[in-house]
């Protein structure tokens, strides 16, 4: 049957679960990321990055199933990078066992990451176009062990920092207790090889905020916390929302009065209410609220990150190359 992977929600910024590598199994906390396709874990051979001293690391010398590969690899993310070399070993994910090629990280720059990020590596769940160094995407290596070549994700924004209560990934099926089955709509991918779907229009309240005349693409990315908007559209979005132009700040006292944001995707509306998209950040004794929008210099590409995904149940179908979105059971 399907394999169940509980998640922990870290301050609504990222979600992690546990996998093991090697024989005997070495456990690691990983960030499951649909926006990339490689698996990497800190390496025993990582000496010069501070992060390597503040996280668990993989010891290939202690694994009887380790096979050398040695190809150098570098992976760049929206907010950071890693470099290292490829290795081969046995991955255990729930009740799935599979031999996979992954990267051992020997350099992960950044002092911030060393003390704030509570994961020992990134587990990419993406398709072939987001894979680096021609490595088979990790899900391709495990999908033959599943009844159906799909995985589905539920993220729980309410259970912050509670171990294994922050949602789940189901590999090989869907958890029908989590969503309204009649609302599940399958969408074709906007571009082959990336988990992304076409966006027709974006509304704020009942006003058309972005017309997408030359088409918009929504990347469905569990590895991004916020909703990333093309730079050219951010000001319009904030003007319609009523948040401040530079940081998107709103007063925390009346979150409910702000308009909903609706994404029209292949003729179907997906709406976030203001309390669903406005994030509250507590720091010491002060609190700031902001609209959870960020911008990147991408002309027509939106990234629908965890702020969006935590309000729906999402299904990723490798066989049909489709993404399904459903309403959550309340």
UniProtKB/TrEMBL annotation:
Alphabetic keyword roster: Aspartyl protease, Disulfide bond, Hydrolase, Protease
Residues the record marks as active site: 33, 221
Residue ranges of every copy of the Peptidase A1 domain listed in the record: 15-326
Disulphide bridges, residue numbers: 46-52, 252-289
Pfam family, one: Asp
GO molecular function, one term: aspartic-type endopeptidase activity
Transmembrane among keywords: no
Gene Ontology BP, a term: proteolysis
Entry annotated with the keyword Protease: yes
InterPro entries, sorted: Aspartic_peptidase_A1 (IPR001461), Aspartic_peptidase_AS (IPR001969), PEPTIDASE_A1 (IPR033121), Peptidase_aspartic_dom_sf (IPR021109)
PANTHER family given in the database record: BETA-SITE APP-CLEAVING ENZYME, ISOFORM A-RELATED (PTHR47966)
Protein family per UniProt: Belongs to the peptidase A1 family.
Entry protein name: Putative cathepsin d
Organism taxonomic ancestry: Eukaryota, Metazoa, Ecdysozoa, Arthropoda, Hexapoda
């Amino acid at each position: 049957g399907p394999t169940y992977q509980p998640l922990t929600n870290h301050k609504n910024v990222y979600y992690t679960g546990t996998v093991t590598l090697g024989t005997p199994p070495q456990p690691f906390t990983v960030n499951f990321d649909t926006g990339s396709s490689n698996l990497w874990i800190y390496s025993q051979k990582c000496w010069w990055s501070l992060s390597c001293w503040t996280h668990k690391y993989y010891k290939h010398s202690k694994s009887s199933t380790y096979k050398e590969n040695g190809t150098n690899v570098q992976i760049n993310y929206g907010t950071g990078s890693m470099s290292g070399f490829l290795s081969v070993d046995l991955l255990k994910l729930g009740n799935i066992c599979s031999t996979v090629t992954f990267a051992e990280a020997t350099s992960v720059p950044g002092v911030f990451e060393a003390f704030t990020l509570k994961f020992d590596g990134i587990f990419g769940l993406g398709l072939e176009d987001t894979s680096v160094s021609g490595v088979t995407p990790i899900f391709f290596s495990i999908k033959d062990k599943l009844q159906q070549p799909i995985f589905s994700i539920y993220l729980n924004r309410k259970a912050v920092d509670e171990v294994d209560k922050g949602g789940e990934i189901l590999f090989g099926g869907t958890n029908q207790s989590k969503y309204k089955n009649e609302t599940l709509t399958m969408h074709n991918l906007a571009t082959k090889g990336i988990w992304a779907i076409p966006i027709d229009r974006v509304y704020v309240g009942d006003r058309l905020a972005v017309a997408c005349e030359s088409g918009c693409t929504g990347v469905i990315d569990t590895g991004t916390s916020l909703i990333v908007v093309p730079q050219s559209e951010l000001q319009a979005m904030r003007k319609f929302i009523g948040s401040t132009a530079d940081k998107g700040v709103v007063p925390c006292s009346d979150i409910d009065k702000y308009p909903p944001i609706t994404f029209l995707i292949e003729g179907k509306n997906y709406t976030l209410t203001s309390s669903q998209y406005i994030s509250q950040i507590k720091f010491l004794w002060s609190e700031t609220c902001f609209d959870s929008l960020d911008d990147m210099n991408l002309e027509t590409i939106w990234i629908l990150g965890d702020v969006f995904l935590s309000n729906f149940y999402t299904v990723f179908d490798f066989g049909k190359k489709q993404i399904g979105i459903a309403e959550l059971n309340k």
